[in-house]
Specification:
This protein is of the alpha+beta class. The protein is about 30% helix and about 35% strand. The radius of gyration is 16 Å and the shape is globular.
């Protein structure tokens, strides 16, 4: 039995804190913390770290609340990136950490466009790195952790997260 883990993302803590609860309203939360990832072949420079700091904005509640929140956040982030003068692209992506169901979940994410990565150009070596992402988890976490609305239906969740070190590196 697993007794502890190094968290791959910040939003997990809020989902676990809310497990076995009923939400009476939609929620928008923010969190910052350390994330830990081992990405084997990609860990050869400052753009991929085992331990990095992530800032997230998390949406919980109705499907509409989560979708609208993610869309509004994406529009605001694009304005900020344009203002900073970063060369970037936003593209459909999938998560590498679904365990034994990785293939199925990855295909599902891509088919339904549930995850988008913000990739910033690194001019000195003509590459791009992922500096952030927008993730629509639908009811994945609420079903696993029994988070429902006042009517007993599973809530939806989504988040956007930016790796502080990767964001700084992109400048």
């Amino acid at each position: 039995e697993t007794k502890a883990m190094l968290s791959p993302t910040v939003c997990h803590h809020l989902y676990f804190m809310l497990s076995n609860t009923k939400l009476n309203k939609n929620i928008i939360a923010t969190a910052q913390g350390h994330c830990f990832r081992y990405e084997s072949r990609n860990m050869n420079f400052l753009d991929r770290l085992w331990n990095f700091t992530m800032r997230e904005i998390i949406f919980l509640g109705s499907e509409r609340h989560v979708s609208k929140g993610l869309l509004k956040a994406r529009n605001l982030i694009e304005e900020i990136l344009e203002e900073f003068g970063l060369i970037y692209l936003i593209q459909s992506a999938s998560d590498p950490f679904f365990g034994e169901m990785a293939g199925e979940k990855s295909l599902f994410q891509k088919a339904f466009k549930l995850k988008y990565e913000v990739r910033s150009k690194i001019p000195f070596n003509n590459t791009t790195i992922a500096i952030g992402s927008f993730n629509n988890s639908q009811d994945f976490f609420s079903k696993k952790l029994k988070i429902t609305n006042k009517n007993g239906k599973y809530i939806h969740s989504g988040c956007l997260g930016f790796g502080n070190e990767r964001f700084a590196y992109s400048f």
